[in-house]
Known about the structure:
The complex is a heterodimer of chains A (432) and B (159).
Chain A: H1 2-30, H2 46-58, H3 61-65, E1 78-81, E2 84-87, H4 104-113, H5 128-131, H6 136-147, E3 160-161, H7 171-178, H8 192-204, H9 208-211, E4 229-231, E5 234-236, H10 251-260, E6 262-263, E7 267-268, H11 272-280, H12 285-299, H13 325-343, H14 369-377, H15 399-413, H16 422-430
Antiparallel strand pairs in A: 1-2, 2-3, 4-5, 6-7
Chain B: E1 2-8, E2 11-17, H1 23-30, E3 49-52, E4 55-58, E5 71-73, H2 86-93, H3 103-116, H4 122-129, H5 139-154
Parallel strand pairs in B: 1-5
Antiparallel strand pairs in B: 1-2, 3-4, 3-5
Amino acid sequence: xxxxxxxxxxxxxxxxxxxxxxxxxxxxxxxxxxxxxxxxxxxxxxxxxxxxxxxxxxxxxxxxxxxxxxxxxxxxxxxxxxxxxxxxxxxxxxxxxxxxxxxxxxxxxxxxxxxxxxxxxxxxxxxxxxxxxxxxxxxxxxxxxxxxxxxxxxxxxxxxxxxxxxxxxxxxxxxxxxxxxxxxxxxxxxxxxxxxxxxxxxxxxxxxxxxxxxxxxxxxxxxxxxxxxxxxxxxxxxxxxxxxxxxxxxxxxxxxxxxxxxxxxxxxxxxxxxxxxxxxxxxxxxxxxxxxxxxxxxxxxxxxxxxxxxxxxxxxxxxxxxxxxxxxxxxxxxxxxxxxxxxxxxxxxxxxxxxxxxxxxxxxxxxxxxxxxxxxxxxxxxxxxxxxxxxxxxxxxxxxxxxxxxxxxxxxxxxxxxxxxxxxxxxxxxxx
Amino acid sequence: xxxxxxxxxxxxxxxxxxxxxxxxxxxxxxxxxxxxxxxxxxxxxxxxxxxxxxxxxxxxxxxxxxxxxxxxxxxxxxxxxxxxxxxxxxxxxxxxxxxxxxxxxxxxxxxxxxxxxxxxxxxxxxxxxxxxxxxxxxxxxxxxxxxxxxxxxxxxxxx
Lengths: 432, 159
């Protein structure tokens, strides 16, 4: 009798101890202290600010933190995530609504750990899982740059997260899984330029944020680094041996593409990549060349293959025995009467040398989303910028026509097997 | 040659033509609606803009065979010199045309905007009108004309 009672007592004590330990662990994972506000913004030397400006371009900070060009870095831009809509924050040195009260330590902690000055956890839409590997010197430079921007009063906009993700401490568990704080290490087998590119691509430009697929928990799928991901419903192509590109990229082409959005006769940047290019165009040319060297190192591991891109010329009529003949005929008619005016027969006169469609990488992607978006929205330079201009066809093509065109281009333009669930993808991508 | 039924400015028309004829040619050559103009034929300039099912399209890029039952509207459907539509009057008031070649396309592009957003911001007007080019350079007057029409509509004017 006495014996069982004692045993029961030990059971209770063990349970209590387990609860205490779990609470302490959960607390350690989810809670971060506030850091003291700073009262004055320190002075910075110009060289530091200039280096910071370059890093801000390479990191494309404005891409998310500027919603309105007349209010740079004031935040407020909505970003759709699978967990709800997150709004970017004000990173101007405004004391009350921006980061004016943030010391360098607070800024560093945000960059490396994703923690706000007041201790709340930031959502990983802010890619601190990349910035964690920036050198302290680079973080110092970036801090100098932001602290010397004009302060703009702009309170944070409320996020609209789906339950339970509105409870920020949960991000702590994401950090346990995905925040790798091992410092960045150069690869001694590679050149200094390659290593510079590798560092910038990982720690600053966060290429993998889009070009690596994500897990269900929204973290990078680390077993499939750079295997191709997504951005704003566009497919972000694999940047390694899985590259869908039908022609090998040269380093020069990559450099031109990253800097101008155009690699002559090879590729044109569309969708979210246009924004990347806009920022890289303003960054240090040597740094962009390093990014190109690193990217090229990865892409050149893709095996050489034979694709219609090596031939060019007008796309053929569908074969008479094509099992989907009416659909392919419709696709061909639309190609011949709408697309070919610029992409084939009309290339010379004034179309600005639109790509022959056999070379269009979007036709070789593993899913049709980017192609549908390009056909629907065209390729328009950002407001006020010069650039290649392809009109959008969303108002012209019905869903059926858009699907037929995509199916035709995939088969007779790229010679690739049909995309699964193409029609569903078309209506999903085109939904208002 | 195939016969196509086109719904244009509220009327049904039969057009005998090849399936690869652009809608623009059918409008101009078969229906005598010469408002929409041939500019580049490549969807780069917007002078052929008409409205199809409420949305602006460059009619040089639309094969007539793909139109189907969708309702097409051209500048001729907005009014005439005696009773111009709100946008047409605003373009006259702002003297927004120089050679006039792009204007029908401009007005249709603007019509599509004001029907969906009766009171757009200036930035919105700029962005929406950006596909349409004017080689005479009257863009600033064109933007003012669209603004004027929007203001008139906001004040209760009729379309």
